[in-house]
Amino acid sequence: MSIWICKACGSHYASNDAPPAHCSICDDERQFVPEGGQEWIARETLASTHENDWSELEPNLVSIGVSPTIGIGQRALLVLSLHGNVLWDCTPILDETTRDRILMLGSIKVICLSHPHFYTGMVEWSEALGGVPILLPQADLPYVTRTSEHIRPWLGDRYEVLPGINLHRLGGHFEGSSVLEWEVGADQNGVLFVGDTVQVVPGRGWVSFMYSYPNLIPLPTREVRRIARRIAEIRFDRIYGGWRDKFISNNAKESVARSAERHIRRLES
Ligand SMILES: [Zn+2]
């Protein structure tokens, strides 16, 4: 069985022979097929040209990306807790050095993800780390491009992953789009990992809410209101987005509330 990786989005596909004709993630209107057409990289090729990078963002939190950048520049976040470690989001590759480094910090209890654009190498990571369960919202199972016995669907809007670490399914960008609450992060003030369920934007202290980021299709105001209401119920002060430079270090809850107001005001004006 060969593993083929979409060069544009980083999704994995298992195939007995040639790569598939299309990438279903890129064909969707929330991504795009690049001008030059669909391109694939064999997993072994990617492993010989790319490696993971590693940076500690705060105590008990590590960011793991891929260098040089592949796909949409996904990164994973490793949360260390007394009850076991959690991997939030994923990257298209996991190199051996990084795997060993992760395992030295203790076993990963679960892999959970913000949305399908970060599913990428989740099955490879799960297998390399000892068959870690992959929690996916039931609604987004149709977007899985490489299936696995380790995938565990979850239903509803909230799921306690471990004590003090909770998934909240907010929808919007995808029906299953989620955020992860880490209660003791940011010096006990609470952290929210958002992927792009809520997108941290360049204007400092602001976020946005889109159905499609590359194609600039906004979410309707009723959806933004609903998401803002759900987020208002979560206690947190800091946000880490899906990408390395996307974060709001404090007062992030206010940032989400005022960004939702701004979005709604502009769409309704
Ligand atoms: Zn793709």
Automatic annotation (TrEMBL):
Q: Where is the Metallo-beta-lactamase domain?
A: 73-243
InterPro entries linked: Metallo-B-lactamas (IPR001279), RibonucZ/Hydroxyglut_hydro (IPR036866)
Under the heading Gene3D superfamilies, the entry gives: Ribonuclease Z/Hydroxyacylglutathione hydrolase-like
For this entry, the protein name equals Metallo-beta-lactamase domain-containing protein
Q: Which organism is it from?
A: Rhizobium calliandrae
